[in-house]
Amino acid sequence: MSRSIMGAAAQLGPIARSDPRKEVVARLISLLREAHGRGAELVVFPELALTTFFPRWYLEDPAEIDAFFETEMPGPETLPLFEEAKRLGVGFYIGYAELASESGARQRFNTSILVDRAGRIVGKYRKVHLPGYDAPQPGRTSQHLEKYYFQPGDFGFPVWRTMGAVMGMCICNDRRWPETYRVMALQGTEIILVGYNTPDDHTGDFDFDSLTGFHNQLSLQAGAYQNSTWVIATAKAGLEEGSRLIGNSMIVAPSGQVVAMATSTHDEVVVARCDLDLGTLYRKTIFDLARHREPRHYGLIVERKGPVSPPEEG
Length: 314
Ligand code: CDV
Known about the structure:
By secondary structure, this protein is an alpha/beta fold. The protein is built from 10 helices and 14 strands.
């Protein structure tokens, strides 16, 4: 009997800084209902889906910063989303800014959670690859300060067996790194869930930035194909506080083919049936990792952080 799960990418249009959480959660619930109406069993919301993408600003006032963070999940404002998902029997992924106070220390993470169809949090992931800088960069109209606001995630890349599949999570910039997918593939992942906020001017070099949509798709398709996994990738899109965030939320099959893609930069749901046995075919043939990988030649990947070139010639 073939195994499958009906997946949805629930893209969000822009969120203004002044938008109250309550309003944002109402939008999430409306997307959840639409996805459910179209048969979805698992809905993927974006990275930092409850607020505007605040790492574009350099803020110093701790109270102002704290306002973007969740101290509990669900909290009073997010509980209605959990309740509605449970009522509908739909699982979901959502990204948010987490203010953790474990062992008495306050730590900030860019986090996502996986909630099953009974409304239980079954997995938590904290973003490993934080892009940008830890201090404002002179001469830039828009900053990217994730290294200032967040600590790198401390969970690695776990996967969970839930809702009839093995699922992993990552967040935005993680999707550009082959290590992200491969570590999850080595744990048998069948679906990777990812939310993103990607401004179309993130390097400030037009030649590079004009390829932002292409690089998003290239990373997702390569990650899916090379690791025999479905990828459900969801954007926060549109003109948000003067920053243009790309859309193109998509669902990619283990073949690397895009099977559904958003066509707007607004709130939008795309759905696709994810046949989990499609991944098995790839895993048993061209990407049979246990048969074909040669890890003894891959040591540098974990031993060395950045490139060291051979000495100059002559
Ligand atoms: N939120 C992100 O991680 N955004 C990055 C941008 C800065 C390039 C991304 O990789 O899409």
